[in-house]
Each structure stands twice: as C-alpha cells, then as structure tokens.
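Hi R.,

Here's the chain you asked about this morning:
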Amino acid sequence: MVHVGDILPTFELGFVDPEAMKVWSKALRDPNPIHLDREAVKAAGLGDRRINPGPANVAYIINMLTAAFPGKQVGALDARFLDNVFEGEAVVAGGTVSAVDGSAVDCEIWLDALGRGRVVGGTARMVDP
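And the predicted structure, written out as tokens:
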C-alpha cells in the first residue's frame, strides 16, 4: 500500500560515463558539442567537463520511478532542469509520494549530483498501463 509521504527507493548512478553521453547524443540526434567536446564547454563558459544530455538525466528519474512502482508506467512527468550534470559525476534520483488518487500515484521527484545538490526537480504521475 502506498501512502502520501512515502519516500521512494533511490536510483544511484556512481559515474556519468562520457562514452554513454556519446550514445545518448547520437540516439537523441543532439549535435550540441557541449555533450562531446570539453573545449566547447569551456568556450560556452560552462566549466571544463562535458555536460550530460538532459533526457539522460530524466531517464535516471524514470528508472527510479519504474523500479519503485512495478507494473505501473509514467503517465505524466514535469521536470525542471536546475543545473547541469557533468561527466564523471555521481547522481542519485529519488522522490516522495505526494498524492494517491485511486490507482494513480503522484510524486515529487528529483535528481541530485552528489556533492553539488539538486540538478533536476519536478513531479510525476504513475498510472496503471
């Protein structure tokens, strides 16, 4: 039984792999050089590490949600990008149950870059397929 206030089990990724970032960029058809080239990141004034594509960050949250609610699917997701995720960082996705409406479960969701804080925040609704 799910209750308002329940804390969801986290999904942790110990290392954002730059090789996986290349795969994400290709799959997303996202040619933005900040995902592939450190010099492009520096030129943009965004630091010196490549930046993970935003949809990959959301995917970590979706992994957390689908593990927390077996048999359900994401019915809605609203994510706010608060900061970048950089190559080599460890990230953790988590959330809490904010409402239960019949079989639907609403959650506050987040992704943190360990040592830096919140990089994605938002809400999601898990529903029966």
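The beta strands are 11-13, 73-81, 91-101, 104-113, 117-127.

Let me know if you need anything else.
M.
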